[in-house]
TrEMBL record:
InterPro entries: OSBP_sf, Oxysterol-bd, Oxysterol-bd_CS, PH-like_dom_sf, PH_domain. Residues 209-218 have a biased composition (Low complexity). Belongs to the OSBP family. It is found in: Membrane. It comes from Himantopus himantopus. This is Oxysterol-binding protein. The keyword Cell division does not apply.
């Protein structure tokens, strides 16, 4: 290490170049340097000898490096060629200036001596006494000037000698400082993530509301290249940056009234018809959100009055580190967590909460075009994340056999059923039927890992959506959710990854990218972008927005291949019509920050209802106690339920061993309302609804339900 590096080493570091290495016996090694001594113990004499050899080699290398640093020769870490050129240029300039100073010094000395001779001759002349005194003072000042000039020249010469002597050390110091700067930038980025709330306040929220789209606008560097290929566009055309990954594109917003098709000017252009974007006949609503709400709220007003608040969250203190320090690296579902980390909803209810914007699917039913329908499906897939932006608490892990129903057939036209079909790994099956023309089903397994500073949640499993009239069958998967600042700082959640939505009937596709948060990025936080294309790969719509606020859709009129970007990717220029708002998040209810940031729908999910199955999450006692603010009692009840579930699992394991010994097959736990089948579309084994639940509810015959509470 250099001297600068040694000054920044950790406490307890030993400089090997001056260290003494000795052996006490067959297994012990003594490493000493001044007043610091380390005693190392190997497992065997062979291992000890290997360590001694390695330390001696490292010591020899450290001595060579120290000698090389002292005489400026050796195998120092080379600087880059540009750094060397810059340094040599600086030294050459200094040398040139020094020569100029030397020339000036000779001239000063020559003229100074002549001046002094002239003054001496004046002193010898018979002049008045006053003039002689003045001439003497001038002579003294000239002498001082010559002495000062000589001193300056000598100092400059010494500086150049020193610069030449230490040039290599400067190179190493410069390289070290650059590495330190990179480490500092990485540290700053980590600190910035830990202080996300402060960063948001500095950036200012008004920037989000003023932006008309979710894609960062006005990239001046791209305007000229795009105009060069589509010269017939308006001067007021807006340009947008594309996604960083696959395939990069630029979106151009055009006015339908002034749009002129000019395919001959566009290389490889694919054209659309602006008249297809009919503002009156199209299912797409106006971008004015007020008209969107007016058109939907009349049909969606609930017929039954439901609760609008729950008891405020109590303020309990908790020693977080004492619980978390033994959890690093473990599967989250196997960690005994108190309810302090939970919210009073189960994972089954959180899964049902994805239906909050079900009206998007009701609108999609009315679409005649499959690509237009895909836009609504894509907006629906993004809307399920809108409630997670403030919801950093963990939902309750459902017990095996636990169910949750949400019957809104009369109010909203759909009824939903979830069942916990597996405990290890935890898996939930979900089935939704809507009399307005669609059916949704999924089996989700949650894989989660606690990594000390953050928690990664990876939902596994496909989501299926089928429309009854058209037979369009859509399949997609969820992205990864990450909860940051688990130990220190304010918790915040981010969504990242890509969603590919495929219509297996028409082969249409939609690629959505959830951009991960970065402190140094200029992008809008929580940005989502994507393109809807048909079976031939032709792009029809551009999707843009944020997963916590809104999604917009723009119809593509023309597309062309643009210039290659600096990253080597070829950008596609999409000329689109004005964007339409497909989805916008509902505002949170009043006092939401004291009610776990629940939405209006979430507040009703755990509301007690009659005639539900005895396994319904609403009847779970620990969850109900937590909602009521009785957390200590909820923790006791939670432990009782988990121990009861473990006892049932041990009994099943014993039955499986007994069946194996007798040569019989043991089926294990069989879901009550779902059955496993091979999906004809994906080929995966998935739990699908087999029927019988709603019939059992009508008869109030729950005799087949297990006793889990």
């Amino acid at each position: 290490r250099t001297q600068a590096e040694m000054a920044h080493t950790c406490r307890g570091t030993i400089n090997l170049s001056t260290a003494h290495i000795d052996t006490e016996d067959s297994c012990n090694i003594v490493l000493s340097n001044g007043g610091r001594t380390y005693h190392l113990k190997a497992n065997s004499e062979v291992e000890r000898q290997r360590w001694v050899t390695a330390l001696e080699l490292a010591k020899a290398k450290a001595i060579r490096m120290r000698n090389n640093q002292s005489d400026d020769s050796g195998d120092e870490e080379p600087a880059s060629q540009s750094d060397k050129s810059e340094l040599h240029g600086t030294l050459k300039t200094l040398s040139s200036k020094l020569e100029d100073l030397s020339t000036c010094n000779d001239l000063i000395a020559k003229h100074g001596a002549a001046l002094q001779r002239s003054l001496s001759e004046l002193e010898n002349l018979k002049l008045p006494a006053e003039s002689g005194e003045k001439i003497k003072a001038v002579n003294e000042r000239a002498t001082l000037f010559r002495i000062t000039s000589n001193a300056m020249i000598n100092a400059c010469r010494d500086f150049l000698d020193l610069a030449e002597t230490h040039s290599r050390k400067w190179q190493r110091a410069l390289q070290y400082e650059r590495e330190q700067r990179i480490r500092l930038e990485e540290t700053i980025e980590q600190l910035a993530k830990q202080h996300n709330s402060l960063e948001r306040a500095c950036r200012g929220a008004p920037g989000l509301s003023s932006s008309s789209t979710g894609i960062t606008s006005t990239a001046k560097g791209h305007v000229q290249s795009a105009k060069g290929e589509a010269s017939d566009e308006d001067e007021e055309t807006e340009y947008f940056d594309a996604m960083e990954d696959a395939p990069a594109f630029i979106t151009v917003t055009a006015d339908p009234k002034h749009h002129r098709r000019s395919g001959s000017n566009l290389s490889g252009a694919s054209e659309g018809h602006p008249e297809d974007w009919n503002l009156e006949d199209s299912v797409f609503e106006s971008s004015n959100q007020s008209s969107y709400n007016e058109s939907t709220c009349k049909d969606l007003l609930p017929k039954k009055r439901r609760r609008t608040r729950i008891p405020d969250k109590p303020n309990y203190s908790l020693n977080l580190w004492s619980i978390m320090k033994n959890c690093i690296g473990k599967e989250l579902s196997k960690i005994p967590m108190p309810v302090n980390f939970n919210e009073p909803l189960s994972m089954l209810q959180r899964l049902t909460e994805d239906l909050e914007y079900h009206e998007l699917l009701d609108k999609a039913v009315k679409c005649e075009s499959s690509t237009e329908q895909m836009c609504f499906v894509a907006a629906f897939s993004v809307s399920s994340y809108s409630t997670t932006v403030h919801r950093t608490a963990k939902p309750f892990n459902p017990l095996l056999g636990e169910t949750y129903e949400l019957d809104r057939l009369e109010e909203f036209g759909f009824r939903s059923l979830c069942e916990q079909v597996s405990h290890h790994p935890p898996a939930a099956a979900h089935h939704v039927y809507s009399k307005r023309g669609w059916t949704l089903w999924q089996e989700i397994t949650i894989a989660s890992k606690f990594r000390g500073k953050y928690l990664s949640i990876m939902p596994l499993g496909a989501i299926h959506l089928e429309f009854h009239s058209s037979g369009n069958h859509y399949v997609w998967r969820k992205v990864t959710s990450t909860v940051h600042n688990i130990i220190v700082g304010k918790l915040w959640i981010d969504q990242s990854g890509e969603i590919e939505i495929v219509n297996h009937k028409s082969k249409d596709k939609c690629q959505l990218k959830f951009t991960p948060y970065s402190y140094f990025s200029r992008d809008v936080p929580r940005k989502v972008t994507g393109v809807v294309s048909d079976a031939d790969g032709k792009a029809h719509y551009v999707m843009s927005g944020t997963w916590d606020e809104k999604m917009e859709c723009s119809k593509i009129v023309q597309s062309s291949h643009g210039s290659t970007s600096t990253e080597g990717k070829q950008k596609t220029v999409y000329q689109t019509l004005s964007p339409k708002v497909l989805w916008k998040k509902y505002p949170l209810p009043e006092n939401a920050e004291n009610m776990y940031f629940f939405s209006d729908l979430a507040l009703t999910l755990n509301e007690p209802e009659e005639r539900v199955a005895p396994t319904d999450s609403r009847l779970r006692p620990d969850q109900r106690l937590m909602e009521s603010g009785r957390w200590d009692e909820a923790n006791v009840e939670k432990q009782r339920l988990e121990e009861k579930q473990r006892a049932v699992r041990r009994r099943r394991e014993a039955e499986a061993v007994e069946a194996l010994e007798e040569g019989e097959d043991y089926e294990g736990y069989i879901p009550l309302w779902f059955e496993r089948k091979v999906d004809a579309v994906t080929g995966e084994l998935i739990c699908v609804y087999k029927g019988g639940y709603w019939e059992a509810k009508d008869k109030q015959d729950w005799s087949t339900c297990p006793d889990i509470f």
